[in-house]
Amino acid sequence: MLKALSRAAVAAIALTLTASLAPAEPIKHYAQSLVGKVKHGPDFKHFDWVNPSAPKGGTVRLFAQGSFDSLNLFATTQGNAAAGLTLIYDSLFESSPDEPTAHYGLIAEYATHPDDYASVTIRLRDGAKFHDGKPVTPEDVIFSMEEIKKADPQRRLYYANVVKGEKTGDRDVTFTFDSKGNRELPHIVGELPIIPKHYWTAKGANGEPRDLSKSTLEIPVGSGAYKVKSVDPTRGITYERVADYWAKDLPVNVGQNNFDEIQFTYYRDRVPAFEAFKSGSIDYWAENRASSWAAQYDFDAIKKGMVKKDLLPTERLASMQVLAFNTRRPKFADLRVRKAFNLAYNFEEANKKFFYESYTRIGSFFDGSELKATGVPQGRELEILNEIKPTVPADSLPPEVFTVEYKNPVNTPQTRRANLAEASKLLTEAGWTNKGGTLMNAAGEPFTVEFLLEGEVFQNIILAYIEDLKLLGIKASVRAVDASQYKRRTDDRDFDIIVDNMSQSISPGNEQRDFWSSAAADGMGSRNSVGIKNPAIDKIVDKIVFAKDRDELIAAARTLDRVLLWNWYVVPTWHLPAERVAYWDKFGRPAKLPSQTSSFLRVWWVDPAKDAALTAARAK
Q: Which tens digits make up the pLDDT trace of 395-406?
């Protein structure tokens, strides 16, 4: 017979059982990363890619192309927003340009979420405030999510699974999601820029209610390290550093935001802007032309050492720069036509003629990462394809997806004739006939195509491609327009082919809907410039969004890569794993720059000694 337990013993057992059954305290995420662990611990003093003692001061003068007519960053379907507006807004978490998917608490002190990712709770940092001195509140955060989704079609898709925001404490906001298992949602909520509810719900200077979905030239209120100082819609915009910026001493900001003023001057195109740089009216120049980099940097200031020229390596995922077809137009709805254009594109000749053989042809939407599809599908990739195949139309998944590794066509003297012959055959199969050197359809209409460009940067390259297409009987032309016309036409999907840049991350997620989904195809301002409406791709995107772990995400991303490439939606062009920059020698920068970008505005500074020496040299 067991001895009776004492009351103290019974109480101790009960206390132990209660503790074991109580829910675990949620982890307070001071930082978040979608791949691995964050680099810096909770007690870090500053990032290791900054100079914490960087001096503050000076002015930097930059170039912007085209024109602007709005200071509303979020009215993406109205007007052209001014360059640099992101400088005035803080987000809940701040990204790290040294860690591809990491960000650290800024307005947010930390975030918590349940294991099933059904919601996220944000604790706001005490002391966060807007430029007008008012504190950032849970109401501001909820308002920001609701109103930015309404105003910006891209963010509407990006935050589509966020269905409710509510105040759950004096400094707490909880966002509820419409599904479980979306590992990225707590992270993307952290990217939300915060706007002041009191400002946007009040009347503007004109006496009318403010509207986040409409363009305006009224200077907005933000909470970031900079605020708008002056505006000239015909010339430019100037930002000034906020002297009492509430977050200036946080570890996430130490050694950053060092310029007192940042000026953007607008030029119609890059030619007069580069002349302004050479004369000293612009301080910093990011060069995007290989030919210019090779041949146009022999001016006097370079020779005298007053202007420096650097090639700064980066480790970021290669950006998928492409010639994008508008498949909403019947002639590009046919895969065979798109493939023919790919076969005719002579990258090898362009690389020699225009790029001094400095570029690499890009061959994947995730080039330079483990997400790139290689070989033929196996394992989980093949399983995903076989799961989807019976549920979608046959033409959604070209047969090559299953059996052939995608590789870009290569045009050498030995392969050029065969590639053009195959392209001609494909066009014939698609219903086009070459009559006297002109490609015609059954109705007797010629095959015409217009390349729409913003400015003249790509014009010579496209003109060379037009000569290639002429060999197939295609009558092509190029039209270069200014920034406002380009935005209007691309927003309205009024183009045949454009140059597009489909930048990805090593942790793709909800943004893939905006790039590829059928829902985004007809959405004004979405990144689905191609107009893809492919049920198979819709299903693969869902696999990415709801991937339960990294292995599943990799398999789904590789599957997406294959299906996009074998549908020939774009003509892949080229990339350079570095930044070409030139600058007047008045700047300092950290000994170690972030791995993903040179982060000029974020971590460089005006060196007083260099600035004085440069001023003296110019005066001679």
A: 999 999 999 999
Residues in the chain: 620
d(CA 5, CA 11) in angstroms, rounded, equals 10
- Cβ 61 vs Cβ 282: under 8 Å: yes
For helices 535-545 and 550-566, give the axis angle rounded to 10 degrees: 160
Which residue spans within 402-487 are E strands per DSSP?
433-435, 438-440, 448-454, 475-481
Closest Cα partner for 264 from 89, 86, 88, 84?
A: 84
Q: Is 456 exposed, middle or buried (0-12, 13-18, 19+ CB in 10 A)?
A: middle
Q: What is the largest CA-CA distance in the chain?
A: 108
Burial 21-46 (b: 16+ CB within 10 A, else e): eeeeeeeebbbbbbeeebbbeeebeb
CB atoms within 10 A of CB 389: 14
Q: Residue 592 — φ and ψ, nearest 5°?
A: -120, 120
Find out whether 499 and 465 touch, Cβ atoms under 8 Å.
no
Q: Which amino acid is at 618?
A: R
Domains of the chain: 41-57+86-200 (3.40.190.10), 226-315+577-619 (3.40.190.10), 320-575 (3.10.105.10)
Whole-number Å distance between alpha carbons of 495 and 153? 20
pLDDT averaged over the chain? Answer: 93
Mean pLDDT of 482-507: 92
3-state secondary structure of 245: coil
Q: Which residues pair with 39 in a beta bridge?
A: none
